[in-house]
Amino acid sequence: MIVIPNLTAVAIGAVVFVLLAAGAALLFVGLRARRQALQVIHDNRALQAMLRTSSSLAMVVRGDGRVDMPPSLADWFGLTVQPTSLAALHQGDAGLTADDAAMLEHDVSIAQKSGRPFDRAMRPQGSPRSLTLRGTRAPSELGQGVIVVWVHDATETSGEIERLRGVNARMRDAYDALTGLIEAAPMPMWYRGADMRLAMVNFAYVEAVEGRDAADVIARGLELIEGSDRGGPLAGATAARSHGRPSEQVLPATIDGERRTLRVIDVPLPTGGVAGFAVDIEDLEQARSGAKRFADAQREMLDRLSAGVAQFGPDRALVFFNQPFRRMFAMRAEWLADRPEFDRVLERMREANRLPEVRDFPGWKAERRGWFIGAEGPTEENWHLPGGLHIRVVAQSLPEGGLLLVFEDRTEQVQLASARDTLLRVRTATFDNLFEALGVFAADGRLQLWNNRFRALWDVDEEFLSGHPRVDAFAERVASKLASPGRASLIPDLVRSAIADRQQRGGRIALADGRHFEFGAVPLPDGNALFTLLDITDSRRAEQALRERANALEAADKVKTQFVANMSYELKTPLTSISGFAEMLHGGYAGALPDQAGSYVEAILDSVERLALLIDDVLDLTRGDEGAEIERGDVDLGVVVRSAAKAVQPAIKRHHIDFAIEVGRSVGRVQGDAKRLREVVEHLLRHAMAALPQGGRILLHADGTATRARIIVSDDGPGLDPDSLARAFDRFAEPNLQPGGERALGLGLPLARQFVEAHGGTVQLVSEQGQGTLVTVELPRR
């Protein structure tokens, strides 16, 4: 009974022991698995951190086309949505382009089928990155048909490649430019290799040695310079390479059949070769000769200037002077030819009293020595010398050292400037005190100058004028001073016309206070405009009064003319009766008359005829301009002259006057009024016989040229005194005979001149006391 319980306990203990042993084993395994899991997690985090900082990320493409990639890689592709397939790498304007996505699918498909890796460079849309994709088949542990695509960020590498490509292009361009420059250089240039043989020549070298091309020259080894190695072209190249510095030689050469002298320069290069070029120094010598001739011509020109010129060399010795300098400072040419120093020249000037008076002459002289090192351009001074001389001094330091001095005598200019200043002051005083109001407007329309009357006339503030207002603002300001404010616009119009069109215009304007002004805008030579205003109030009043008086006189003259005309007609009626009865008596109708009575009747007929002529003349004069009116027609002047002579023939016979008529065939025809022309000849003939005594002589002569006809009436009467001659054509001269039997001054000559001038002709009267009178009438053909 006791044994059975013990066995049970042993069995239970054994079971418990086994369970404890199994638990301990499980605990050990769990702890070890935990340590391994923590290590895996740590390794995984480290790998993820490395992947995040790596420039390459992996994308897994499975056999069924699914794609696994980290979010950062999707960001590289510029995608905001995680792609699940290769086609999803193209998402509109983001990710790969459609073409790139299709090419990537094709590469992955080939890699899955053949296991061939691929490489491709792509730039996603909207992303600044440049990506390089490398795809390979994944290990079998990842599954069948899995492709791992490593994506590398090659942005910096691409930038560096582009930069190096740009540098390479620039270097290539620089090399091409340098090669082109060498090839286009006008001087022969070449390059020798380490063996001192020609390796490159330019076109100028080929032309100089008369080769076909550069390859031909190099192949034949044609040297530009003649001579042996010791004294030839290789000597300079060898010396340059041996000493490591450029070598220079002057050697002869024959180019284009001419003997030339060349300066040959050989320059050693780090490559062991030697580069060289040759300069034709004969052209340089010619240039130097030309420069020398130019300098000589320049000095000759300076010697002809009116200004004094002196040049000092770098050693401050006088190297050149012209004759005006010697005369201006009273220096002997022999002394100047010894090249005196600058200080000695100044001292000699002081001795000749040709320097300004200064207290500290040594200090003043030391300051002038500073002209030799002046670097800020020329220095100018004005010297006021004793005796009223003014000299302008210009000192210019020379680039090669030395000093150039120019002395200009400005005494006359200073005197002229002083006279000009005096003239300006006089003009200003005159301008301010003129009776006219004056204002000067500049080319921009602003008021520049004005006198006192201008300001007083417009009654504006001096402050306003001092602001130089524009002409528009000025016109607006003074508009209220005008009787018609709207006429203020005339001021800017006239000023602009004078400034822009250079036209002078004027007019009259009335002010609100009743004054009247005559204004004008005058263009000035300097482009400005002068605006003037003259007070014509008094003259306008006088003009108005004169106009009223003239109207009254004109009315009175019309009344007088009408009265004279009426009286003339009234006088003609009884005069006709007197003439008729006198002719009847003279004709014997009332019986025979005694001889004395017959002479009385003849005197009555002469007086009646003269009175009738005077009445006709008075009528012509009272008509004024109407009396000068003519009817144009073709007139035979010879017929007119003879007709006029026939009309006065009875009166001439009664006075027993010798009358001669000469009518040439050249008198011809004229355009005019035959009646008026006949009256002209009659007036001249009656004027000639008016004071002739019995037995006197009258000559009527008529001729002409192709352009003019001429009528001459001359007599041998007593002639006219100077006073009567001066009033011969005065229609108001005293008529009839004057005491002592002198020539009468009637209305005939004034009327004759009036009619002749109406025909466009001229009348000339020549008379001398005791010699007679000559009247010449010239009439134009047309």
From TrEMBL:
Pfam families linked: HATPase_c (PF02518), HisKA (PF00512), PAS_7 (PF12860)
Primary enzyme class: transferase
Gene3D superfamilies: 1.10.287.130, Histidine kinase-like ATPase, C-terminal domain, PAS domain
Ranges annotated as spanning the membrane: 6-29
InterPro entries: HATPase_C_sf, HATPase_dom, His_kinase_dom, HisK_dim/P_dom, HisK_dim/P_sf, PAS-like_dom_sf, Sensor_HK_Regulatory, Sig_transdc_His_kin-like_C
GO MF entry, a single one: kinase activity
UniProt entry keywords in alphabetical sequence: Kinase, Membrane, Phosphoprotein, Transferase, Transmembrane, Transmembrane helix, Two-component regulatory system
Residue stretches making up the Histidine kinase domain: 566-782
Enzyme Commission number: 2.7.13.3
Annotated stretches, region: Disordered: 117-136
SMART domains per the UniProt record, alphabetical: HATPase_c, HisKA
Keyword Cell membrane: no
Catalytic activity, reaction form: ATP + protein L-histidine = ADP + protein N-phospho-L-histidine
Protein name, as recorded: histidine kinase
